[in-house]
Design a protein that fits this description.
- The structure is a homotrimer of 429-residue chains.
- With 429 residues, chain A is α/β, with parallel strands linked by helices.
- In chain A, 30% of the residues lie in helices and 22% in strands.
- In chain A, a hairpin with a 2-residue loop joins strand 2 and strand 3.
- The longest helix of chain A has 20 residues.
- Chains A and B meet through strand 3 and helix 6 of A and helix 10 of B.
């Protein structure tokens, strides 16, 4: 069982019809604000210029369906599943022939039983999403086509929660709140993010580092957020993660930063040592907001973290992305990876031994006192940790160099610090 | 069909009896000077010291054969094929037994039907080259051995053609004009080089970069040329290529610079992305004038370019190196590779995006407006180009990083520049 | 046959009962001091603090055995093999039941015929070492258990021999003199070390570099030595090797320094080019005094050298580590590797060609004067040596870059220097 009820949160949030903008976003923010009152919303009016982009109209969706005139049978009902409506669909209420309707129905031919998730944010269209099989079964004849939506001058909302630490240097987590009823992509990211915030508040009342948790609609949201905060972020953020699809229990994925050279990359690589089914993707395979955070001129030291990466699991962007995919074990696996990274920062990233040569561990009961071949193996991680705790390596570097899971490295760091055999620092020594 | 009639030029030049020095070199220069009047010859007298070397005697060759006294039958006739005489052979006119003649006949035992190309530039010898089978058939008896040549105090000629651009920074191409009747090694290099010069003059009336085209006899020629021009070259040359065996259509070969770290190496590597049968050879496998240009103390930023590398194709240094080997497609393949490199320099090597975050390509009709899984792939090259167009990468770097052929990268660079989404510069930004 | 009688020395030293301290160490020093009078002993009293460690009591061992009361039969007799007594065993003279004795008998279960080498330096115990099979055969009944040893306030001895060269920059060799009757681990290290010292004195009466040969008990000895000499060593030592298990003829092993980036690593890598069965171990597989020399805060530019590495051969730390394992060929193979490294330093590590472009080797009879395909191969090493003799590469670098054994590179360096085609220097040019 996870320390925090991430799965319960996700289930409560699942049925909200989120999009880039609109009441679904507001409702989602309200939910998290009850858990974390420090969340702050930032509101941008339709038409505002944000970097190269423009804040789009707000979208309100109340209902949508197609009704077969002859029989009264309804199909693609929004109230059955909110994926049935094309995201950002323009309103319509019109009778038309099936032939006229069909081009407006989007399906996923290679997964004929599933409803795909399709959007048209930046070009006004109307449309429905259905399983390919259901579309094939639509009866002949005329249809009444109803999308009860509004596209109007409204607002786009981004939010953040910040913890000021002893240092201004920041660790950042970003995820997004723009997807309708899909569990992994993307309720998993926000719930893991909000659980991490809870963990920090409970375990580190006075953090070394500062923390920033960002919740935004994808792409336009991160651009909007940065259009207001970029200078501050560039001055403070030292390590960041974009969380996407962190709820299934099939693999662990690292989407590298543009040059795969940030401390976030090192941290994640270290935190995944010893995990099963670890996959590393170069920035060429980016797809979520690491696209924006890692763009030239932005250059956040951030990488992407997923369990199974968006696009790499069959349920992605369909109605099958549900709680068969997202599990407690999946969410908790993601949580623990990121928690260990937070712990490493708070311990002090750079350990340095306090003695010259190897310390005499035997006198501290940290080393076997009898020497025979074969007796050394259990203590290798400790000796190797000390060998590379030379003040130039981070805990992440050490884990990688000595090939030991980060959690064990952190245990050794804590134990050696108790015996005054290392000192830790937030900078290279 | 190639843009320029490189194959026609090569065929007209084929029968000239070139060597390190002599009338064949002069005739070859005259031919290219008609195409490019800016070619300038530089003449060095026999005996002149050039770095560690000495300009050798000039060699004039009029005729050569061996005549079987008893039958009058002639063999190894220079007038049948100019490879029949050992390059730089001393004169002789003497009757001798077959046994005395045989040690002076060079053959290629592993290719018994072919006449090998053999030279003795720096040690005075006389000799003939024959196919191993023809040598075996020589009748018994006495022979009159005739080589009607002179070795005398004359001159060695090197040549260059220069284009002064807006910048003094130079791109250099070097090839050699010392081989007799062999098509790939080495008429291919000069004709491709001269076609590139034509291309630059026709397409870039006012070049950004300066260009230098060097035509020399191999080894002694490049040493001689540099003995006069080294300081100038070290001050100006930013990227250079030695062209050798660039006329067959079997593979593309990159002979790396001494440390494989010059911009020429990067350029060639990028220009060969997506080609079939690309081979990369370290400097340990050098063999043409990259030996001299890349020597310590010279250190030109230059690498070698071949289609199939000298020594790696069976016809190399034999009379089979003819127009069965060298084709229009072969020459043109080499031309296009080098043209794309010239284009990259002229576009401006360092592109930098003009907006923060990803640009909104959709509003410029450069991106699909509907989002469904599977629709992104065609646009990946564009997004990846923009992601790495951060002012620190050359167009060559970007091609390599994103794994896209240089020609496509150049197309994207031109398109993005049209939309003012990038600016290019000749220096890192 | 080796140049020096290393095998003879080792055989004479084999039966001495060495340990961390005691008369065995003194006797071993006396032996080497006869060969090399410049060896100097440094003595540290029990209880002295050395870095994080404390000099232990001195151990004197006179006899040890267990005697079956009923039959008078003796087992585990120290006088039969000095491995029979647990190293640093406390004295005992007591009658006890077999059941009480057994937990004090150490065996190697996976090698049931062999006596293991076991020690308890830093925790007072008494014990015996026997083959597992012999232990199983011990008759039932009472035993008189005798270990005639003393643990008393005495001294620990370390020693060194130094040669002052023209430069203060030092090459260091360290090995250890604390193991009882085992041939490879560790008489091989000291005898190879002492042969190298002999070689230097005989061949280089006026060395360029300074040399330091260190003989210490393992771990505590190197720590003790450095506690007195660290500042001097850090100022002078440029390259060092810890010698351990250098006497068998099965493989060559390189135990890399902490970051595998010292000149010692490069030197050893170069010297092993072309050898059979070369193994490279990262610092994570360290085990001898490279642990101390390479610890943070010490940071000696030193790596470990073995033939077959400690722990990797079956006879290691048992009575089977004898002169079936250690051979003349084995010792000499190690000697030659290290001798070639010494030669490289004394030649001058950085060669630089004296001419621009390739030198004209033909006029010096260093290059074939006739050019035909296939004739170049024998000369490749020479041309490649010259190409990389650019003043920035050490002889070690060049050997690695061109893939040629160090000994051949040294031959070329000497030949090219004779012809004034290179100059060598002890620094990058």
């Amino acid at each position: 069982m996870s320390k925090y009820d991430m799965l319960g949160w996700a289930k409560e949030l699942f049925h909200i019809a989120r999009s880039l903008t609109g009441d679904g976003v507001r409702e989602t923010f309200r939910y998290f604000e009850e858990i974390h009152p420090e969340i702050t919303r930032h509101v941008f009016a339709t038409g505002t210029q944000v970097f190269d982009w423009t804040i789009p109209k707000e979208w309100k969706i109340r209902d949508a369906y197609v009704e077969h005139i002859e029989t009264g049978a309804r199909f693609a009902e929004f109230k059955q599943h909110n994926l049935h409506v094309l995201g950002y669909s323009a309103p319509i209420d019109q009778v038309m022939d099936k032939a006229e309707l069909l081009p407006h129905i989007y399906t996923q031919e290679d997964q004929p039983d599933l409803i795909p998730y399709v959007t048209s944010y930046y070009s006004e269209r109307w449309g429905f999403c259905m399983s390919h099989n259901a579309k094939a079964m639509l009866p002949e004849g005329a249809y009444r086509v109803v999308i009860d939506s509004d596209l109007f001058d409204g607002e786009l909302i981004v939010g953040d929660a910040k913890i000021q630490g002893q240092l201004d240097r920041e660790i950042m987590f970003s995820s997004y709140i723009c997807h309708p009823s899909m569990a992994n992509n993307e309720l998993s990211g926000p719930v893991v993010s909000m659980a991490l915030l809870k963990y920090i508040k409970e375990h580190y009342p006075n953090t070394r580092y500062s923390y920033r948790f960002v919740l935004v609609p994808e792409t336009i949201g991160s651009i909007t957020y940065m259009s207001e905060n970029l200078a501050d972020m560039q001055a403070r953020v030292e390590c960041g993660f974009n969380l996407s699809c962190v709820g299934d229990d099939r693999s662990f994925s690292h989407v590298q930063s543009r040059y795969a050279n940030t401390i976030a990359d090192k941290a994640l690589e270290a935190a995944l040592i010893g995990k099963e089914n670890v996959k590393t993707y170069s920035f060429l395979h980016r797809g979520s907001d690491e696209r924006q955070y890692g763009a030239p001129g932005i250059d956040m030291p951030l990488c992407g973290f997923c369990r199974t990466k968006y696009g790499e699991y069959p349920e992605y962007h369909t109605d099958a992305d549900n709680f068969d995919v997202v599990t407690d074990a999946g969410l908790n696996g993601a949580f623990e990876v990121l928690r260990s990274i937070i712990d490493a920062f708070e311990i002090g990233l750079f350990p340095k031994v306090t003695v010259k040569g190897e310390p005499q561990l035997g006198k501290r009961e940290l080393y076997p006192t009898i020497s025979q071949k074969g007796t050394y193996s259990s203590i290798n991680a400790r000796m190797d940790f000390l060998a590379y705790a030379d003040g130039t390596n981070t805990l992440f570097d050490i884990a990688k160099i000595i090939g030991v899971p980060l959690s064990i490295v952190l245990d050794e760091a804590r134990l050696m610090a108790e015996h005054n055999l290392i000192q830790t620092s937030v900078t290279s020594q």
